[in-house]
Amino acid sequence: MALDRVPQRVGVVGYGRLGQSLVSHLLTQGPELGLELVFVWNRDPGRMAGTVPQSLQLQNLDALGERHPDLVVEVAHPKIIHESGAQILRHANLLVGSPSALANQATEQQLLEASNRWDHAVFVARGALWGTEDISRLDSAGGLQSLRVTMATHPDGFRLEGPLAVAHHTGPRTVLYEGPVRGLCPFAPRNSNTMAAAALAAPSLGFDRVIGVLVADLSLTDMHVVDVEVSGPPGPTGRSFAVHTHRENPAEPGAVTGSATVTAFWRSLLRCCQLPSRPGIHLC
Which CATH architecture describes the domain 8-127+261-283? Predict the structure, then answer.
């Protein structure tokens, strides 16, 4: 049965592990859900050879409008959002799979302006963030005082840049970064998406006050571990409301994306298809 309010035509930008999974789902399950895959783009077109039908391969991202998509799904790299996000919104709704791109204030502003100008929505996948709705509700009610997200995995699972790329590991477990999420995203663009989603879920704190911690742990060869710590202001007794979630996400050695995150992203895609297309940035 087709989903209500579902875009009929979907394009996928990026053909790494997550992109491959989404393309497979769209080709096999999409038709019964009312979803039609209309293009796949990858920076290296050769990666699509033999697995993506030639008719669906988009060679030039600037030509995506010719495929008339209703929704474009980005699962490539934050650079795509920086460079092409606003242009994509001219033609379709956008599902951002690299929310770390929004730590760049200029990029966030460009997306908001394009969203309002062209009346298309910016959806952001929650990825590995557990408890997104609870965080958002607490934030909206004024009850969120602090939010801290720690992501730990084996060093082989990191794709780091700048000073973090040359950071020294001082033992079996090394804290590579601890501080505002905005400061982490440029140097760990593919490993900070969960933290970026948390910053978007808690706008009262945002990228400057949500704390991100990145940990290299030699024992975590086959999983990503995400801890989310939330606290509210002190109550009448002086004690504060607090929640701590601990999520262990199985992952292939060296993989950036955990297995459960792939499934969660597919659900986010289906969810944003059911949401009304309205300007602004929306978690799904």
Answer: 3-Layer(aba) Sandwich (3.40)
Report pLDDT for 1. Answer: 47
pTM above 0.90, yes or no: yes
Q: Which pLDDT score, from 0 to 100, does residue 253 have?
A: 82
**132-256 to CATH, choices 3.90.226.10, 3.10.105.10, 3.50.50.60, 3.30.360.10:** 3.30.360.10
Give CATH 3.30.360.10 domain extents, the chain.
132-256
Q: Give every CB contact of residue 192 below 8 A, 6+ residues apart in sequence.
A: 100, 103, 151, 181, 184, 185, 212, 214
Report pLDDT digits (tens) over 228-253: 999 999 989 999 999 999 999 888 88
φ/ψ (deg, to 5) at 74: -95, 120
